[in-house]
Amino acid sequence: MTLVAFGINHKTAPVDIREKVSFAPERIPQALKDLTSSNEVEEAAILSTCNRTEIYCGMKSYNENGIVDWLSDFHCLESSKVKPYTYIHPDQNAVRHMLRVASGLDSLVLGEPQILGQMKTAFSAANEAGTTGKILNRLFQHTFKSAKQVRTDTAIGSSPVSVAFAAVSLARQIFGALDGKTVLLIGAGETIELAARHLHEQGIGRIIIANRTVEKAHQLTEEFGGYAIALTEIADHLAEADIVISSTASPLPILGKGAVESALKTRRHRPMFMVDIAVPRDIEPEVDDLEDVYLYTVDDLQEVIQENMKSRQDAAKQAEEIIDTQVVHFMDWVNAQDSVATIRAFRAQADRTRVEMLDKSRRMLEAGEDPDHILEVLAHQLTNKLIHAPCSQLRSAGNDERTALLDATRALFELDHH
Fold it and tell me: Would you say the pTM of this structure is higher than 0.85?
């Protein structure tokens, strides 16, 4: 069986192509059954995310066009429109690709952890559909184990590389645990939503979301708890906030030095951590002059992110070394399966010969022939039967100067070279 990793991703195709070949979760079971109903594909799993669609399969023989044609047909597309954006990796390259994907080394954001969960979901769906077997089952388990080792043994995921995540990580550095803390989020765009998600995951005590359109803020608070206020109400709630993260499109500052100074007095100078992600800035720069305020701008965070990205790139080199080792381990197991199958076939052939010769010997005994003569015939014919095919192949190898086969035979049967 040939292992194959085939796909299309954010590096090879624009989003308008990727969305045409993506699989909705409810379509994957049928797609898997359709794919494995062909004579070529014996085992299969499908991973489909916003950044990639990949098919991992075991094929009787390597056939790139067969998978491209199937993917195109399933989505009612012309193969010629899909093929230029695809890639295909056979055998050990397929194993390496899967391990790199699961470890976040092939992701849009280097080292992001979500892809491992998505791969586990893909395996679960294939397992439930009954389209995985001995090889893919083992490969996925090996992939998960290797990705865990990469996360444990390297710093690939320990450094935040998004503005929102960097802001939340800095908050944790200042306050330690975030439970019991209150955050005021100003704005309701994508960055604020991402910050709310990270804060929620970190167990933040309370979330207040202020936005020009209160309805938009309400939508976020429904998902993450807390309550929504208008921008005009910020001054009334600012003193409650241990953390303030602001990201609006306002052309003028929303928070001035006076408002923050007043809030600090109410707080009796308990520290406030403030992150201004907006450009132009939402928080007056003079706020940084106040004691008990830690004010970071988007530029400060970019420095953190760049530093962290370098840290991830260094970790990625270590991760590649781990993956190289794990690829060798898995391919050793695959090759061992081939040897097991060969041994089984060899034993079965020898067994058939044994049964055939025994049957013949019994018939000779029933016919009253001399037992010593029967034993001579049995030994002679059994030997001839067992060595006929190997001897024929060795003669042919000698004539064709295929010395590798001759050397392998000497090693296999521990023959004297003379």
Answer: no
